[in-house]
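Regression test case RT-17, inverse folding.

Input:
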């Protein structure tokens, strides 16, 4: 897998996005960090990024969001193939401890789960 230089955060919670951006910037100021508030917005961003050959290498995906949640985003990417994310690692972010949700994520495209709140150590474990 290519080194990570571009990260897409998909999360509707502004505080979580702010914290994640801050943690990532503190780890490596060269990361290009993009954000989307839901899965639908993220799909549109990814289609544009694909046209410019600038797909992110890492997606941090919240599960519970309005408009299109994380699971629907994974389903859309996996079934319809609008965006080929073969070189992109997808990590589900959740505050939930629900084993059904964790199993559902693992049955789709997600590489792993990270429990919220995020820490520098948790992020480091998936980036490096």
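Golden output:
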């Amino acid at each position: 897998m290519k080194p990570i230089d571009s990260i897409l955060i998909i999360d509707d919670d502004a505080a979580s996005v702010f914290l994640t951006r801050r943690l990532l910037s503190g780890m490596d100021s060269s990361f290009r960090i993009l954000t989307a508030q839901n899965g639908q917005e993220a799909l549109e961003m990814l289609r544009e990024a694909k046209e410019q050959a600038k797909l992110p290498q890492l997606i941090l995906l919240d599960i519970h969001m309005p408009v299109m949640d994380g699971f629907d985003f994974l389903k859309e990417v996996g079934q319809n193939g609008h965006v080929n994310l073969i070189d992109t690692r997808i990590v589900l972010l959740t505050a939930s401890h629900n084993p059904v949700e964790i199993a559902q994520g693992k049955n789709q495209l997600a590489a792993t789960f990270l429990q919220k709140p995020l820490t520098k150590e948790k992020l480091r474990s998936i980036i490096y």
